Amino acid sequence: LMSRWVGSTLERQDALNRLEEACRQLKEVNRLKDEFLATVSHEFRTPLTAIKAAAWILEQRLEGELNASQQGIVSIVITHADHLHRMINDLLDLSKMESGEMRYKHAEGDLARLAREVSISLSQLYAEKDIELALELRVESAPATFDHDRLRQVLLNLLANAAKFTSRGGKVTLRLLREAAGVRLEVEDTGIGLASEHFEKIFQKFYQVDGSSTRSVGGTGLGLAICKAIVEEGHHGRIWVESAVGEGSIFIVTLPTASNPELTALDSPS
Q1: Is 161 left (phi over 0), alpha (psi -120 to 50) or beta?
Q2: DSSP assignment, residue 69?
């Protein structure tokens, strides 16, 4: 009996040792993956910057006039360079998220002012797509402590996504409301909508809804995962979607407006 007990104990210990070694190897693989993503993304930035600068020179006709065909080619280069730039930024943010190095710089600001800034910055994009972008502020101002650049990133991402999935002649509304514990930001569109089984999954890394209507617009499947991290981990808020197929979607962000002492731990070191 004693020998069986000793043997069983040794087997359990051996299994535990193997499990610990497997965990160690997985952590090392994950670390190497993060380093690879960060290194490759940084290396891509230099040639991409040169490509965008050259395309800008041509677009501005600084090297001479372009015919219609040449203008079209330059436009394609700029569009895809911008898309690649967004992908690189998403990969860098993903690397920071997974390594725990995402830092936030919280300061007093006005969420209503931020909403106005974002809507103005996207007005040209929406005009080109023939989609109405409406700004609906239920409050004149919404003072809060937040990271301006990161929340701007969230709103830009949500509004850009809404434009992707909304047909020409449609409408997207950026709405700001006050709630008991803070504020509520909504991005509502008249687009293709989303089935309920995707509501949680779309906030997971690399998840994309199957189907020609969604795959055709492209993307890395990282934008909403990054938005979720910024809102929930960086600002102690919530983000979710309400939608129905063929009836459009509403992406909702709720944020506390009172100064939160916990946020100081998230700020970058001075």
Answers
A1: alpha
A2: H
pTM for the model stands at: 0.75
Spatial separation of the C-alpha atoms in residues 27 and 169, rounded to whole Å: 49
Q: How many CB atoms lie within 10 A of CB 244?
A: 11
**Torsions phi, psi of 139, nearest 5?**
-135, 145
CA distance 195 to 192: 10
173 phi and psi, to 5 degrees?
-120, 130
* Cα separation, 25 vs 49, whole angstroms: 36
Distance from the Cα of residue 268 to its chain's centroid: 20
Backbone phi and psi for residue 178, each to the nearest 5 degrees, phi listed first: -95, 140
Q: What tens digit of pLDDT does each residue of 118-158 get?
A: 999 999 989 989 999 999 999 888 999 999 999 999 999 99
For 157-221, the three-class secondary structure string (H helix, E strand, C coil) is HHHHHHHHCCCCCCEEEEEEEEECCEEEEEEEECCCCCCHHHCCHHHCCCCCCCCHHHHCCCCCC
